[in-house]
Design brief:
The protein has 209 residues and is α+β, with helices and mostly antiparallel strands. Helices cover 22% and strands 38% of the residues. It has 7 helices and 11 strands. The longest helix has 9 residues.
């Protein structure tokens, strides 16, 4: 199940039918012509927490206006243009998340948390927390002209509660920073990316239980 503990109320409220409808409804047409399209080109493949056999592909994708005037798409193009996630590493980090929510069929959501923290001489305070979500599709597609098969992969990724992720999510992305090292870092603004939300406890930062 996706981890919800510690979410800000406005963010937690977003993890509902709106998210599920957005991620489930974006499956691209699975025609022979579509499979050969450049939008299905694999840009990167990442270790994937749900499979020991297959990596999770990040495909070029698309983000365009359809015949009804609605912006639609999938893959890296949509993730970058619509949701302002500009680092491949963020997709790789989310792909390894242990927080997995099955949506329907071969669709799964994986989640992580981004925190912006300000520390003073005696305590640290969370000034912004963003739940980040990656929607993955395990439908198998042929890769190029060869016999290898791969998942459709990353359909979309975003910061829950807003269309675009804040710029600091990209510029300050350092998933190996630990809570302990942040507590010891001294005064100033710090950033933390974790698979569990962080909370304040007696002036210190701790992972939610």
């Amino acid at each position: 199940m996706a981890l919800l503990a510690g979410a800000a109320p406005a963010q937690a409220a977003q993890v509902d039918a709106h998210e599920r409808a957005a991620t489930v409804s974006e499956r691209p047409a699975e025609t022979a012509a579509a499979k050969k399209s450049s939008k299905y080109k694999i840009l990167k493949e990442f270790d994937y927490s749900r499979s020991k056999r297959y990596d999770l592909p990040l495909r070029l994708g698309e983000y365009r206006r359809n015949a009804k005037g609605k912006m639609v798409g999938f893959g890296w193009t949509k993730i970058k243009k619509k949701h302002n996630i500009t680092k491949y590493g963020i997709i790789g980090w989310l792909a390894k998340s242990p927080n997995i929510d099955h949506l329907a069929g071969k669709r799964y959501n994986l989640t992580g948390w981004a925190h912006r923290v300000k520390c003073g001489p005696l305590s640290c305070k969370i000034v912004e927390r963003r739940k980040m979500l990656l929607a993955a599709d395990e439908t198998m597609y042929a890769v190029g002209e060869g016999p290898r098969m791969a998942f459709l992969g990353a359909v979309t990724a975003f910061c829950v509660g807003s269309v675009k992720c804040p710029t600091w999510v990209n510029t300050k992305f350092k998933p190996k920073t630990s809570v302990a090292s942040l507590n010891a870092a001294g005064t100033g603004e710090q950033y933390l990316f974790t698979y569990k939300p962080v909370k304040e406890q007696k002036g210190r930062l701790v992972l939610a239980g």
